[in-house]
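Protocol step 4 of 5: obtain the predicted structure for the target chain.
Materials: sequence only (see below). No template structures provided, no constraints applied. The aim of this step is simply to have a reference model before the mutagenesis design in step 5. Sequence pasted as it appears in the construct record:
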Amino acid sequence: MEEKSAVSRNFIEQIIDTDLAEGKYETICTRFPPEPNGYLHIGHAKSILLNYGLAKKYGGKFNLRFDDTNPTKEKTEFVDSIIADVKWLGADFEDRLFFASNYFDQMYEAAVKLIKKGKAFVCDLSAEEIRAYRGTLTEPGKESPYRNRSIEENLELFENMKNGMYEDGAKVLRAKIDMASPNINMRDPVIYRVAHMSHHNTGDKWCIYPMYDFAHPIEDAIEGVTHSICTLEFEDHRPLYDWVVREVGYEHPPKQIEFAKLYLTNVVTGKRYIKKLVEDGIVDGWDDPRLVSIAALRRRGFTPESIQMFVDLCGISKSQSSVDYAMLEYCIREDLKMKRPRMMAVLDPVKLVIDNYPEDQIEYLDVELNLENPELGTRKVPFGRELYIDREDFMENPPKKYFRLFPGNEVRLMGAYFVKCAGMEKDEDGNVTVIHCTYDPETKSGSGFTGRKVKGTIHWVAAKTALRATVRLYENIIDESKGVYNEDGSLNLNPNSLTVLNDCPIEPAFGDAKLVTMPSRPDLTAETAGGCESAVCFARPYDSFQFVRQGYFCVDAKDSKEGALVFNRIVSLKSSFRLPKAE
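Step 4 output (C-alpha cells):
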C-alpha cells in the first residue's frame, strides 16, 4: 500500500518527500510570484493552487509576492486584482503579502557584493551590442571590452548608476560568469539596468532596477522559500538561479522545480491580445465573461471548487499538452448540479392562456429547489391563467417523436397541471402570438393522480407575477472552426460570441426571499428578509442557478442592479465531454 501511495504522488511531491527525509529542509515554504502587469488567467490558477496545496499538505507556509521589478508595465490596479483572485481561489497567504520592491536595498547590496567578489561588472555596450556579443546556440559569445574593469571602477560606476548620473540604456550591470557556456543564460547576463521610471510602490527612490533572473532567487531566499516552483520555460534559467543564491551567499538556498504550463484550447490568454480587445471595445474589460481571466471566470459564475477540480484533473507533469475547454465546463457542471436551485426562466417567450382556469386566481405551488437534493429546500411558484412558455416548446406541425405542445396534445406544466392545446392566435405574418389550452384540475403535481400519463413536460412562468431579466448567452470568443489566429497574427473572433436577450420572464422568487425556504441560506427566510422584495433578496451578485432545460446562469456582478437582474450563462446543461475511464 505504501509503495502504491508513493507512486501516485506527482514528481514535485516526490522531490519534497526526499528533501524532508534527507533533512535539507525542516519545513516547507512555497510562493506565488506574479508580475503585476495584467490580470491573472486560468493558467495562473494552476500555479496558485499547486503552490498553496503543497504548503497546506506539508503543514508549511504559502506566500503571495509581487515580482514588481519592471515599473514600465506595472499598475496598482493589477496588484489589487491579483490579490482578489488569489483570495477568491481560497489560497490563504495569511499576513505574508510581499513585494520584490521591498527588497531593493538588499538586492543592491547583493549586487555590490558580487562586484567586490569580481563576479559582476558595469558594461557600456548597448542592448543591441550585448545581443551581438552573446553568440548563438552553436557559437560561443564574445567578452565585453568592459569585462575586466577593476573592482574599484565597477563600484564607482554602479553607485553613479544608482545616483542617476546616466541615461536609460547607457550602462548596465552584468554578472561575470562564462561567455562560452552552452547555456546562453549564463553568458554574462544583465542583472541591473538604468530606468528613470516612477515605481508604483517605491515612487522615485530608484532609477536602477534589477532584472527578474537576478531578483527572483534573492526574493525566494530572503523569504525562506524552500521550493521555487515555476513553469518549464524557466528550466534553462535554473543554473543562473542557483548561481545567484550561491554567489550571494545564502545559507539555505531554495530549490527551483519546473512543471508544465496549463494550456486551454481555443482561448485567449495573451495580455497584449486581451488589452487590444478591451481597448477596441470588443469586450467590456479584463473581466468580460467571454475571457478566461480568473476575474472573468468569477464574473461568469465559475466557482473556486470547479477550478480546483479542473486543476486536479489536469494533473502535474513535465509534459506540455493542451486541455479541451469542455473539461473546464464539465467541472462547473459537476460542482453546481447538486448545490444550486433549479428555477424557471423563459428566454424566448410566447404567451399560453388556460381558457378554463379562473381569470383572477393566483395559486402558489410548493416546488422543490432541486429534485436531486431535497435538502436545498422549496420555493412557492405562483400559477395563473396566463403563462409564458418557451417558443421552442410549441409546434403547429411537429415531426414524429415531438412530445411537447402541439394542437390536440397534452403535456404537463412542470410542478403544476396537465394542459391540452386547444388552438392558437397568430399575427399578420403568421407567427404564433398566443397558445390556448385547457387544464385538468385533477392532475395537480403531488396529488397522486394516476389516471393517464403524458410524455412531455415543459417549464413556464406565470405572466401576472413574472419578473423581467436580461440574459446573456455566451459562445467562445474565438471562431473555433478557424483556429485562434489569422495569418497576420490577429485573432479569429466569433461574431456570435455574445447574444443578449432582453425582457425575459423569470420566477418572482428570484426577487422575493419570502417565497423561498432554503436551509443553506438562512439569510433568505421571511423573518430576516425584512420585507425586501427587490432583486438583492434571493439573486445576489455571483449567485448561480440552473434555469430549467437552459443551463446554469449567474447574476452578473457588474451590470445587475436592484430590480434589474442580468444573468450570464455559465454553461449549457449538456456536453459531449466525458472523463476517460480509469484503467
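Step 4 remarks: The longest helix spans residues 42-57. The mean pLDDT is 92.
Proceed to step 5.
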